[in-house]
Every structure is written in structure tokens, then in C-alpha cells.
Amino acid sequence: MKNYKLDLKDLNSNYFHFTRESNLCSIEEKGLLPKISFHAQSLEDTKKVFFVQGLDNLLILFNCWINVCEKYPHIPDVFKLGTKIRGKNKFSKIFINIYFKWTEINKLHKFIAYKYFDWFLKKYILLNLNIKESIDFSFDDIDQIKAKKYDKEYLIKAGYFFEIF
User: Of 5, 46, 101, 156, which has the fewest beta carbons less than 10 angstroms from its beta carbon?
Assistant: First the structure.
């Protein structure tokens, strides 16, 4: 692996993957291994290597992550509970709406979220992938979050962007 300086040609042509810096030795030895990340445990069903095409999508992804950090519960298993109830009935919709409102007004929650995101950026690095469509990946991959029929309003509130990928 070598350092790569981002350039304007990267706006659309390159593929980027974000990973912990501590993963570099394993990546050099074994390559990128498909997995389900910690934050997607209750959302995704299939192991995969996640990447974005171009700097525009990378910035959209960062914006998504900031929104997710603002909304992500810092109490263990609350996120998993939210992915299970999905706003299926009136009580769960009330619960989810109260939670999202609470994240908007709770300054301590936001402070912790931004501290976490800052820590995240310091521990992770961006990889420029040398991959080719139809050889290394397919754009026909199923978006499992959309396939699970979560309420679109709640996905948007949680930071999910429908315009990318």
C-alpha cells in the first residue's frame, strides 16, 4: 500500500473504502474481507465490502454518518430495539418520534455524538480501491435496508440518504 493524494479526477472515477487504521496489516495480508460492520449488525444480512464511488458520494456518506452519530443511541441495545420495531404500530411510532425529538434537543447526546465522530475520524483511514465493475463488484447489489421496508421517514431522520449508491 502507498499514500495517495486526492485529486479532482477522483470526483467520479475512484472507489473509496473507510476502515480502521489498525486493519491495514490484515488488509495487506488477506485483502478486504466482506463482513457486517458493528453499526449494521441489525440492518444488514449479507457480508460485504462497503465502498463509494467518487468524492461526491464520499462527502454524502460522511454527511450521513454525522446524521447517524447524532441519532445513534448511546445506550446499549436501544438501536437494535429500534430496528426491530420499525414503526410497525402506533405505540412504536410514538416511541420512535419521541426518541428522535429527544436527540434534537439533548445537548449532552449531541456532544457525545460529535466526540465519537471525532474519535472515529482519528482512528480510521480512507483507502483508494483498485477495482473494476463486473469483475470485483456489481451495481446490482440489493440495498438490504430498503428491502426490509423500514419507514422511509424514519430512515431519513436517522441519516439514511436515498440518493446515493
Answer: 5
Q: Which residues of the chain have pLDDT under 70?
A: 1, 10-11, 38-39, 42, 74-77, 79-80, 82-88, 146, 158-165
Rounded distance between C-alpha atoms, residue 98 and residue 91, angstroms: 11
Nearest to 141 by CA among 17, 50, 36: 50
Crossing angle (nearest 10°) for helices 90-105 and 107-123 = 80
pTM: predicted TM-score of the whole model, two decimal places: 0.72
Residue 108's identity, in one-letter code, is L
Written as one string, the DSSP assignment of the chain is -------GGGGTS-EEEEEEGGGHHHHHHH-PPPB--GGGTTT--S-B---EEHHHHHHHHHHHHHHHHHHS-SSTTHHHHHHHHTT-SHHHHHHHHHHHHHHHH-HHHHHHHHHHHHHHHHHEEEEEE---BTTTB-TT---HHHHTT--HHHHHHTT--SS--
